[in-house]
Amino acid sequence: MIFFNSKPLSLEVGKKLFTMLARVGYIDLLANLSPLGYPHPAIRHVLNDLNQHLQDVCKLFFLGNSVPVKNFEPEMSAVLDVLCEAGLCNKSGKSYVLNGLSLYLVNGLLYFVEEPAPLTTLYYGRDSWAMASRIQLYPKLAGEVLDFCSGPGIQSLLSAQSGSRVTSIEINPIAASLEKCNATLNGYSEEITIRCCPVKDAFTPEDRGQFDRIIANPPLVPIPQGIDYPLPGDGGNDGLKVTQEILETGLPRLSENGSLSTIGMCTGDVSGPAVADLLQIYKHDYDIQLCILNKHELSQDSEWILAIAQTITLHSGKRISDICEQLYEKYLTTGSSALFMYAVTLRPKLPNSQHPFTDIVDFSDSQFSANNWWIE
Predict the structure, then answer these.
(1) What is the pLDDT along the chain (376 residues), one digit of tens a residue?
(2) Residue 51 near residue 11 (C-beta atoms within 8 A)
(3) d(CA 104, CA 36)
(4) CA-CA distance, 333 to 328, in Å (whole number)?
(5) In 99-136, beta strands by DSSP E
(6) Is this prediction's pTM over 0.90?
(7) Which residues pair with 292 in a beta bridge?
(8) Neighbour tally for 330: CB within 10 Å
(9) Alpha-carbon distance 78 to 146, whole Å?
(10) Long-range CB contacts (within 8 A, 24+) of 83-91
(11) From CA 88, how far away is CA 109, in angstroms rounded?
(12) Are 121 and 178 in contact (CB under 8 A)?
């Protein structure tokens, strides 16, 4: 288990790394690849067409390969040695290799995350970009931002980049240490304060801080009780366990003109998603917009149950058919017949408003196709 150390890093190191990556074409190559998926297969496909310097950089920084030290110029080797001190890279014998990481470029930010794997814990996926892209819709905010379940820190980094002071809450100490490295390399170590703790322990009664924007990309996969599933994705029985903690902890700390935004998945039935029921208790004090983006009917052979079962198989070694059957039976016992994907924002009711609104915008049965987190 690797804990990363941000102390050897600095903005100067980050700038040098960015400049050298741009010089060999790494930045321009990644600019052509969609952030909605993992670009690793595409890079492997064209790898042999690249010049040797770009091949070596792609192998090291993106594909998880070891590359001989002699293949890099002294200036790059000096930066790689600093990354080794930080635990991001390893100098094994006469080769460099990243410690299970890939280096993305997101909106001009250097962003180290774990290589794609079914059991990844330092996670960056489609839902990460879904939350990040929603942040970028808002104007720059010279205020206070609270980022729940920050992971390696993309939401926090983008918020700091827009001028905000950020408090990040992350339960996984390894992810928190990687976020600190990412913040330092991009020059935002002073703007981002990281608290490594569960959501419900983020604040003490003495904390009086108010936040202008609260964002969260929580563990969101509805996993029935008794099913062993990797921590980063497990959202509890209905997918709302951590989301409920975020609402309970975050909403009392929202400034008068602030907002709380999150995305998620949840179970539901013919009457709708479980998140709509959860939001009922807040409707008298907050304006709420809930967008239902997608709906998956649950059956033993549905794509959704198969996808979850595949991840559990890698984690447990059990037969996938047995897991599909077990999952379906457990969903049925909770009264669930469908899984929903949603995005929601809450804002405090204005002082002169007698009737806060609750908008439920349901795209799930529309003519438009849903690409997981967006409507097309």
Answers:
(1) 568 999 999 999 999 999 999 999 999 999 998 877 788 899 999 999 999 999 999 999 999 999 999 999 999 999 999 999 999 999 988 999 999 999 999 999 999 999 877 667 788 888 888 898 888 888 888 899 999 999 999 999 999 999 999 999 999 999 999 999 999 999 999 999 999 999 999 998 888 789 999 999 998 889 888 887 766 788 889 999 999 999 999 999 999 999 999 999 999 998 999 999 999 999 989 999 999 998 888 888 888 888 888 877 876 677 888 888 888 898 888 889 999 999 999 999 987 777 777 899 998 876 665 567 888 7
(2) no
(3) 12
(4) 9
(5) 101-106, 109-114
(6) yes
(7) 342, 362
(8) 16
(9) 36
(10) 83/9, 83/13, 83/17, 85/5, 85/8, 86/4, 86/5, 86/6, 86/7, 86/8, 86/9, 86/181, 87/2, 87/3, 87/4, 87/5, 88/4, 88/112, 88/181
(11) 16
(12) no
192 close to 160: Cβ distance less than 8 angstroms: yes
3-class SS at 7?
coil
Indicate if the alpha-carbon torsion angle 355, 359, 360, 362 is positive or negative. Answer: positive
- Residues 188 and 157: beta-carbon distance below 8 Å: yes
* Nearest partner of 121 among 149, 145, 82, judged by Cα: 149
Radius of gyration of the chain (CA): 22
Count how many residues are written for the chain: 376
Token duo for residue 230: 């990797």
Look up residue 302 and give its two tokens.
């549905």
Q: Do 291 and 361 meet the contact criterion of CB atoms below 8 Å apart?
A: yes
Q: What per-residue string of b and e applies to 134-160 under the rule 16 or more CB within 10 Å gives b?
A: bbeeeeebebbbbbbbbbbbbbbbbbb
Contact call for residues 97 and 65 (beta carbons, < 8 A): yes
Output phi, psi for 51, to 5 deg: -65, 160
Both structure tokens of 278: 């959860």
Residue type, 320: I
**353 CA to centre of own chain:** 35
Other CB atoms within a 10 A radius of the CB of residue 269 amount to 13
The amino acid at residue 126 is R
d(CA 160, CA 139): 12
Tokens of 340: 């929903």
